[in-house]
């Protein structure tokens, strides 16, 4: 039976890979895509989600969400992902007229309360929408099976020395989510930094199908300067982990978000020795199957 999921995302090159695999695989029943300000602004992340919907001729509804963090100043990663957030490929025309609504938090709640089984939330960007969901509808927590998120780090960051981008963009939202009491799996920088997708591997699916060609081109644009070294694809590991969780090392920990420190705001403080863990932290792979799983999932795409 397919796993019902909601994808909350800020596409984003690596978001596009995760969304592509999830939309095309029979193991996943994507109930909706919710967009959030993150890699680029909300208008662009929403348009990118609609471009992917058009590319796959999907009927999955797209709802736009938070245009800014709860309290934080707006940050973005357009210097990494390009001006549109998903440059490098000529996607089919998409229009904001195809957007289902501008109220993704309400849409998530409606799906949660009207689905017969608890839903898994896949968080690929800042956690603003999910925090707003829990604050606006506290009863929704009991309707969520678990949260699989890309964010955080047990050590060094990538936007500041100690903070990972998604958490840094909205630390207050991350604080709400990490302390929600819902089963939570954190797939942070630790995993993606040591699980490289080699250039040889990425080239191998360039001509596999339309999706392989699309991903190859946006990956190449994403890391044009050092593409031949390989890629660290952060967000896609949320989907790969759900497909093959036994291939990853996971440790229980208490994870808290630093909100006050002038130099450490947005850091994920991970305590593996805590007697009250609130999170499963995926730290590494135990084999090299992630490329194989990626390829097998990609074969099912158009």
From TrEMBL:
GO cellular component: cytosol
UniProt keyword annotation of DNA repair present: no
Domain Inosine/uridine-preferring nucleoside hydrolase: 5-290
Recorded GO MF terms: purine nucleosidase activity
GO biological process: purine nucleoside catabolic process
Keywords: Glycosidase, Hydrolase
InterPro entries: Inosine/uridine_hydrolase_dom, IUNH, Ribo_hydro-like
Keyword Hydrolase: yes
Protein name (Swiss-Prot/TrEMBL): Ribonucleoside hydrolase RihC
């Amino acid at each position: 039976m397919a796993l019902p999921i909601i994808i909350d995302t800020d596409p984003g090159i690596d978001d596009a890979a995760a969304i592509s695999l999830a939309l095309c695989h029979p193991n996943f029943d994507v109930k909706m895509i919710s967009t959030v300000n993150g890699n680029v602004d909300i208008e662009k992340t929403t348009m990118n989600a609609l471009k992917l919907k058009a590319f796959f001729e999907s009927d999955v509804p797209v709802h736009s969400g938070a245009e800014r963090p709860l309290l934080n100043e707006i940050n973005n990663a357009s210097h990494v992902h390009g001006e549109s957030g998903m440059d490098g490929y000529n996607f089919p025309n998409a229009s904001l007229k195809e957007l289902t609504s501008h109220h993704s938090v309400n849409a998530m709640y409606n799906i949660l309360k009207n689905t017969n089984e608890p839903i898994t939330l896949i968080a690929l960007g800042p956690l603003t929408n999910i925090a707003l969901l829990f604050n606006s509808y506290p009863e929704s927590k009991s309707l969520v099976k678990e949260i699989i998120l890309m964010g955080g780090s047990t050590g060094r960051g990538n936007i500041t020395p100690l903070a990972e981008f998604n958490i840094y963009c909205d630390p207050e939202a991350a604080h709400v989510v990490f302390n929600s009491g819902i089963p939570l799996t954190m797939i942070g920088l630790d995993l993606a930094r040591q699980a490289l997708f080699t250039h040889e591997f990425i080239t191998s699916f360039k001509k596999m199908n339309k999706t392989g060609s699309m991903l190859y081109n946006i990956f190449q644009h994403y890391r044009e300067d050092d593409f031949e070294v390989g890629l660290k694809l952060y967000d896609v590991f949320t989907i790969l982990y759900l497909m093959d969780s036994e291939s990853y090392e996971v440790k229980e920990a208490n994870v808290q978000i630093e909100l006050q420190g002038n130099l450490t705001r947005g850091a994920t403080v991970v305590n593996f020795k805590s007697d009250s863990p609130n999170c499963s932290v995926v730290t590494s792979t135990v084999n090299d199957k992630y490329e194989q799983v990626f390829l097998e999932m990609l074969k099912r795409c158009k």
